[in-house]
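The record is kept unedited without comment:

——
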Amino acid sequence: MAIQLLRALTNVTVIATASQPVTKAWCANLGAHHVLDHSQALSPQVAELGIGDPGYVFSTARSGSGKPTSSSSSLHKAASATSTAPRSSTSRRSRRSASHSTPKTHSCGRGCRRSTSPSREILRQIGELVDAGKIRTTLTSILGAINAANLPQAHRLIESGTAVGKFGLEGFTAQP
C-alpha cells in the first residue's frame, strides 16, 4: 500500500526492495519506479541508479538480520510502520541523522471525538483513492476460515518469506 500511496500523493521517486522475481514484478506493478534486491548490498544498487542517495526511507519491517536496510550516509528521514526494529538498527540510523518514528495514526488525542479522529480522515482519503482507481487492494488470497488448522498455515507462509501481497483469514469455524 505504501508504494501506491507514495505514487498517488507525492512526487518522490519510489524505490522498493524485493528478492524474488515474482515480488519484484509485484512491486513494479504497484508503481515502484525502481526495485532493488534486498538480499544484496543496497548501496551499490542505489548508486547504479544514478539518482543520488534517498532522501527518505520507509521501512515496514526490520531486516531478518536486525541490521539497517540501508547504508546510505546521507539519509534525512526514516519512518517505520512497526515498532519491532531492533535497538541497534535504530541507533545506527540515528548516528546517520535519520529519525526513526512509529506514528500512531489510529490514536486519538485527549478530548478528541471519534468523529474528528485523524484516522477517520486518513481512511476517508484512502477511500477516495480507491474509488478513483488510484490505489487497489494488496490482498492476494484468502486462506480460509480462522481456525486451528489455518492459523499455522498462515504463520508458515509468513515465515517462508514467499508471500506475495497480503493474505487473509475470514470468519470462525468450529473444528471437527
Summary: Strands lie at 15-17, 34-36, 56-59, 77-80, 139-142, 166-168. The mean pLDDT is 76. DSSP finds six helices and six strands in the chain. Residues 118-131 form the longest helix (14 residues).
